[in-house]
Amino acid sequence: MKPVTGWLWAVRGIGALAVLGALALSVLMHRASAPGWAAGALALAALLVALMLSRRLYAWRYVLPGLLAVALFIVLPMGFTLAISLTNYSSAHLLSFDRATAVLLARTDSQGRGMDFRLHPVDGGQLRFHLVDDAGRAWQSAAFQPSTAAGAPLPLQPAADAPASAPLDARALVALLPQLQALALAGPDGLAYRLASLQRVADQAPRYRQVDAQTLQDLRDGRPLRADLAAGQWRDADGRALEPGFRTGVGLANYARIFGDPRFLQPFISVFAWTVSFATLNTLFTFGLGLVLAVAVSWPALRGRHVYRLALFLPYAVPAFISIPVFRGLFNENLGEINLVLDMLFGVRPGWFSDATLARAMVLAVNTWLGYPYMMILVMGLLQAIPDELYEASALAGAGPLTNLFRITLPLIARPMAPLLVASFAANFNNLTLIALLTEGAPDRLDTEVPVGATDLLASYTYRIAFNDGGQNYALACAISTLVFLLVAALAVLHLRLFRPRPPAR
Q1: What's the CATH superfamily of 2-85?
Q2: pLDDT digit string (tens) for 277-326?
Q3: Which long-range contacts (CB under 8 A, 24 or more apart) does 230-236 make?
């Protein structure tokens, strides 16, 4: 009983630590002004306490870790992706509405005038500006307290005498920088001067003034600016969009853009068709090559089978981020060994990275090389479960190797291999690593406005829209990612329905 009791106490200790962690996370989220996340962490802590204290919920202690993993690694990221796909989030719309408005209100106009300044301490902890304008005239401000600098502009007057104290050094100015940046000096020319550097002030007048929550006024001409909440832009009186834009909800506009705008629909259909073809062909090629090699190295009369198995397994043992750049060098059109051999034997130098058909053939060949060892190992394991008597009976009947392959081997391994083939299809469907390291989507298509290449899969196409495009349209990329998730989820549901256990025959 002691080991069991000790185990139970260990479980309770882990649960208590989890509760304390959830409570600490709730406090941190609350301090970070995220009340929703704080409430979620608090609810998690309450759930953990209920599981630890309630006997009726005892069985859920074993289910909860899996549910939390699904929520944390699947539901939460997918929900976040879906939420972004319903907005206009991009590099041109990074800020919130309030922050974009604040950026516009902080803009200033300048006539190019400025003055060099020194800041001198005076009695009572006060400070005074001593300035020299571009004409060489000296000016000084009234004494002020740094803590109350943000107020009415300090008027400047001609400086009669030289300052009696030494000016503050750069370190002291940096320490006072927040107060000095909020200070304005009223110049004799009617302009307002603000801090431009640690040695100079420049005339800076506000460019815009806020009228109401959705209207600004341009102080240069008095014309209004209005917030276009549907597009996430501030627009001037002529309808021109001003930067920066702001995030806003657009509903299903990104999905309508994918399927309704020919600029996006045609590339999407092309990439989708190639993705399905790539995943299907790679699954068939890797399975076919792995099956043939597995049958060959499982032949009892073959000497040195273990050496062959080890040699054929090596492509799977080398990490893909090492193998793929090696193949990229081998297929180099000018210096690659493959083209050098082809040129020597046949006098041709194929354009592996410039011709769309050849680039796709290269991608299929490289991924087949990387994937066949996995299929070979699986088939070798399944072959061990096939009784030798079946092959002996087939030999007595005069059947050859092909008959054995199609009449015995394939029918017996088809059902256990089917779920693994579906999983391989799904993995190839989202094979970003291969495309990113081998071709980067090349050759690029020149007939579209969207960054897309002939070898781009949906995963790499989405990545280019999100990070490599000049606009970096994160919302559109999230919409495509959501569609890819739905396609893969549909494959998973289909897999569960087609390959669920059959009821025993009566």
Answers
A1: MalF N-terminal region-like (1.20.58.370)
A2: 999 999 999 999 999 999 888 887 788 888 888 888 888 888 888 999 99
A3: 231/88, 232/88, 232/93, 234/100, 234/101, 234/104
